[in-house]
Write a structure and sequence with these properties.
The complex is a heterodimer.
Chain A lengths: L2 H64 L19 E3 L2 E2 L1 H10 L2 H7 L5 E9 L4 E6 L9 E10 L2 E11 L5
Chain B lengths: L1 H33 L4 H19 L2 H4 L2 H11 L4 E9 L1 E7 L8 E9 L4 E11 L1
Antiparallel strand pairs in B: 1-2, 1-4, 3-4
Classes of the chains: A alpha+beta, B alpha+beta.
Chain lengths: 173, 130
């Protein structure tokens, strides 16, 4: 191989290596960007799902606690540990509902229900839709992500509807 | 030169395998999160149990009267649900309610007794979102 041929060969080898490097770099960047975008997309979805799941869990938990007998079983506002409105299987009494409504502040009820960071609203209705009573934060919920539950219960021995709504409380400060 | 090209290929394959594994892990997480019972199915099941419990306490189930059961069930059931009820026991089985057509149907059972007529049985419900 002559000197000029040797130089030409060396030059082509250099071009080839750089082309190789750029191709690999291009593929790597495409894949890397795709991974970042996918990861971002799915982590956002996961975060939203966890966020909603927590809200749903709180709503279902509230529904179950309300339909329990509470603790102690003969609780009053002064000694209540768990606010349950029923005496037995889905039977809500007026006395218990009034004790909650009249003697337990909303902020205290939230703490007792374990709803820190959330707001709630309860409404008891007769089966035909006439309101028996309500408790909680009755605000305009438009634009908020709310979980609403409906349970069929007894109120003073008559079939009734219990509507429960839970949503995230606004962050203050 | 050949050796260097091969190294580049291996590097790319490595990235593809890495991306594939990351994708699989992300998908597995998403699928597992999605597997948690859907809230509407939990709520549907609870409504079913609520209805059957109220019917039992009111003595409607034990009456074994199809018309009474159907009427009361319609009054109690929220409008977005449909329900079918089957009563079986030491009497001729009866079924009331809508035919089941939906994909997700929650179901449950409750025992009931009519002490006056010495009749007892199991009420099975199927409830679903319309």
């Amino acid at each position: 191989m002559g000197e000029s041929e040797y130089r030409m060969f060396n030059g082509k080898r250099g071009q080839s290596i750089i082309l190789d490097l750029f191709t690999a770099l291009f593929v790597f960047l495409i894949v890397f960007i795709a991974i970042i975008l996918l990861f971002n997309f799915y982590s956002n979805r996961l975060r939203d799902e966890i966020f909603r799941g927590e809200l749903r869990d709180k709503a279902f938990m509230l529904g179950e606690i309300i339909l329990s007998t509470g603790k102690p079983v003969d609780w009053t506002a002064s000694n209540v540990e768990i606010i349950g409105l029923t005496t037995h299987d889905r039977h809500i009494t007026q006395a218990r509902f009034n004790e909650l409504k009249d003697n337990i502040a909303y902020a205290d009820a939230k703490d007792l229900f374990g709803l820190g960071g959330f707001d709630f609203y309860l409404r008891l209705l007769e089966i035909d839709g006439e309101i028996i009573g309500e408790y909680g934060n009755d605000i305009d919920l438009r634009g908020k992500e709310v979980v609403s539950l409906r349970r069929i219960v007894f109120y003073e021995g008559q079939a009734a509807r219990l509507d429960v709504r839970v949503w995230r409380a606004p962050i203050i400060g | 030169m050949e050796k260097r090209r091969k190294k580049g290929q291996i590097f790319s394959i490595d990235v593809v395998i890495g991306a594939f594994l990351v994708g699989i892990i992300i998908l597995a997480v998403i699928v597992n999160v999605g597997k948690k019972a859907a809230p509407e199915s939990i709520q549907t099941e609870k409504i079913g149990y609520d209805i059957i419990t109220v019917l039992d306490y009111e003595g409607v189930l034990a009456s074994l009267d199809e018309t009474s059961i159907q009427t009361r069930m319609s009054e109690l059931l929220p409008s977005q649900y449909d329900i079918r009820l089957r009563l079986s026991g030491n009497f001729n089985a009866i079924e009331v309610g809508s035919p089941i057509i939906q994909r997700f149907v929650a179901s449950g059972k409750r025992a009931f007794v009519n002490a006056t007529d010495d009749k007892y049985g199991i009420a099975t419900f199927w409830v679903w979102l319309k």
